[in-house]
Amino acid sequence: MGMFANLFTWWNGASLGTTIVTRFRGEQVGRDDAGNIYYRHRDNEDRRWVIYNGSNDSSRVPPAWNAWLRGTIDDVPEKVMPPRRPFQKDPRPNLTGTPDAYRPRGSLLNTGERAAATGDYEAWKPE
Asked: What are the boundaries of the region Disordered (predicted)?
């Protein structure tokens, strides 16, 4: 499939339509640490989009770039956002459906055994 992989799909990169619009009407404004590339329309700066580096998952967009995409900030994050503080953690994509997803104790995908109930709980028993 190779170079035609995104011809009819959208879930792993730009579709054909997005690629055409990006090529002829898009202006690249930045790139994040994950390799996602951000664009705005040359004729209408309010139209903004991202070409993902990998799967199209909006949880992979860092918070500052998300603010730019939604129009919360007017200029690119590097110019208007304060510097990152040492205590801030790196943003993480949504891990649902991956081996790293949160699985609480008692989850069928964890041990399948829930924690013991406290003393104020009385199980219902049919008569």
From this structure: 79-127
